[in-house]
Amino acid sequence: MTELRKDPIVGRWVIISTERGRRPQDFPREKAVRQEGFCPLCPGSERMTPPEIMVYPNPHPGGDGGWTLRVVPNKFPALRIEGDLGKAGEGIYDKMNGIGAHEVVIETERHDLDIFDLPEERVADVLRAYRERTVDLMNDERFKSVLIFKNQGAAAGASLAHSHSQVIALPIVPKRVMEELTGCQDYMRFRDRCLFCDIIVQEMEQKDRIVEESGEFLAYCPYAPRFPFETWIVPKRHQCSYEMIEEDQIRSLGAIFRRTLRKLNMALENPPFNYIVHSAPFRSGTTDFYHWHIEIMPKLTKVAGFEWGSGFYINPTPPEESARFLRELPG
User: Fold this and answer.
1) So what's the pLDDT on residue 63?
2) Is the pTM for the entire model greater than 0.85?
3) Predicted pLDDT at 330
4) Which of 162, 205, 209, 220 has the fewest CB atoms in 10 Å of its CB?
5) Cα gap 331→328, rounded to integer Å
6) What does the pLDDT read at residue 54?
7) Can you list the positions of beta strands (E) in the chain?
8) How many Å apart are CA 49 and CA 56, to the nearest integer?
9) How much is the pLDDT for 35?
10) Residues taking part in catalysis
């Protein structure tokens, strides 16, 4: 039977419409296809990108070059780092200059590998690079937040096939993060506890929506998911910001992140997907009530008129069924 479920964090309602199709084979296949030919992110093409900001050298250099990970400025940035904010108003309208930082994390020197194909320690390198870049960018007083995300496959917004993700520092706080902050702060006022910490406890007790679990992290399908097989990864210890992650956590996160992505890839046969790291704004004083996390969203359904008009999402797959299917797969 169709259900309406309310997201406890932002208060958004989701329609779980089971009549529309439920299991992975019920969705049309739109695979993330790897393009061949010249690639500006491959070894030997370093001159095709702006000068690197950070590089992890290859301890065993050979045919694949002298590095395993590079971070470079985006050649076509959404925001530019030079200049001042220039905040201004035009009557009731507000504006500012497009100031920020837009960086590309080239996750591997290998064109033929995706992030979930890498060994655990190399996935941990990607996560470590996210932390290092966040720590550096937060030193710029113009920036209020950072958004870390990956687009996998053209249908998910990727313009290059070589495995990469992006880091954008913003002079504002994204609306989605603000909605989460508001919901978490309201919960803290009412219960005097972190909402995400309570979600972790309840999910571990019920076990119906758990996909993977380690000593440090929990991967689960949220109670009111917007999309089929949407999966979140949260740290069990309370931390509001991604830059607070410690070295032992990075290694643990690399392992569970890789297993979760491999399960999704296996279940859905190489789907396009996005993942986003949600972290507290810089210098925001949200230590007590917010909890950083990663949201992974396979691209299986389309957002259409009802979703845009209502703010609701229609999801044909109950999260309990998604989690059960993923749990049974090897990672």
Assistant:
1) 55
2) yes
3) 85
4) 205
5) 9
6) 96
7) 3-6, 13-16, 54-62, 65-73, 88-90, 93-95, 101-106, 145-152, 164-170, 210-213, 217-220, 231-235, 273-278, 293-298, 313-315
8) 16
9) 62
10) 164
Question: Is the C-alpha dihedral spanning 56, 59, 61, 64 positive or negative?
Answer: negative
Enumerate the β-bridge partners of residue 212: 219
Sign of CA dihedral 20, 22, 27, 33: positive
pLDDT reported for residue 27: 66
Locate 311 and state its tokens: 């703010």
Q: 């810089």: which residue's tokens?
A: 282
Phi, psi for 197 (deg, rounded to 5): -60, -40
Amino acid in position 212: E
Six-digit token string for 322:
């998604």
3-state helix, strand, coil in the chain (%, to 5): 30, 25, 45
Instruction: Please state the domain count of the chain.
Output: 1
Residues 318, 23: contact at Cβ < 8 Å? no
**What count of other Cβ atoms lies within 10 Å of the Cβ of residue 253?**
22
Half-sphere exposure of 53 (CA within 13 A, CB side): 19
Residue with tokens 């410690």: 246
CATH number of 187's domain: 3.30.428.10
Structural tokens at position 18: 């089971």
Range of the domain at 317: 3-327
Q: Identify the pLDDT of residue 287.
A: 80
Distance CA 87, CA 171 (A): 11
Q: What are phi and psi of 220, to 5 degrees?
A: -150, 160
Residues of the chain with pLDDT under 70: 19-36, 61-65, 286
Which tokens belong to 1? 């039977």
Residues 6+ apart with CB under 8 A from 14: 4, 5, 6, 7, 224, 225, 226, 312, 313, 314, 315
- Number of C-beta neighbours around residue 125 at 10 A: 20
